[in-house]
Fold this sequence. Notes:
The chain has 296 residues and is an alpha/beta fold.
Amino acid sequence: xxxxxxxxxxxxxxxxxxxxxxxxxxxxxxxxxxxxxxxxxxxxxxxxxxxxxxxxxxxxxxxxxxxxxxxxxxxxxxxxxxxxxxxxxxxxxxxxxxxxxxxxxxxxxxxxxxxxxxxxxxxxxxxxxxxxxxxxxxxxxxxxxxxxxxxxxxxxxxxxxxxxxxxxxxxxxxxxxxxxxxxxxxxxxxxxxxxxxxxxxxxxxxxxxxxxxxxxxxxxxxxxxxxxxxxxxxxxxxxxxxxxxxxxxxxxxxxxxxxxxxxxxxxxxxxxxxxxxxxxxxxxxxxxxxxxxxxx
Length: 296
């Protein structure tokens, strides 16, 4: 895999968005949007794998506002409308001539909401898309506990809230539930990733706003707006969206392809990176060829 990256700082909505660029600086842009409480590290493996498989691609992975190295947008509620507006403005800045877009988990909602608001990508890739309300998924009870957890943090002063939200025992418990692999070395690496990056949020208020956005919306709300060629990648054992709801989403988006990874849950970007890269590279290659043929 190509390990090199270029660090970018892009002014968006009055705040600098930090982003990491991989591959050919003049290549076809692919913007990757990470999930809730993560940052660009979560999609780094997929980004590196794609530019290695497709040397003509430029992968751009921003940190969402309020996460990683990107500060929160000043004076704004970090709801899904804000995140959709942010992605539209960021995309205009880094890829004004056109781009493909990939969203993982909460990032799939951000991408879909942005499209609903006018974002016009050439191709759409949604990994572990959130296709069902959080309180109806296979782990509805855990979601309810998460709601209580964040509400408790919301009632605390900032310092105490950060201690609770970043509690390593709670972070590890979440990681244990989400990881499905039985490979001890891989599980240990996943836990290390969550320990290192899962608590890199700017402040507790922004995190709580983003949490509300993540559990209040689904990709399905915006499915009718998605008309670009679309690839869905789902884990068979996803704790947040059951497989039947992913099948429903595929039928909602005209011509969408669905690739299912057996034995994998919500951490496709950690557990089955090579498979995800293969699916994405195949999709981008085939749809690019189809677009050239249609234009000829």
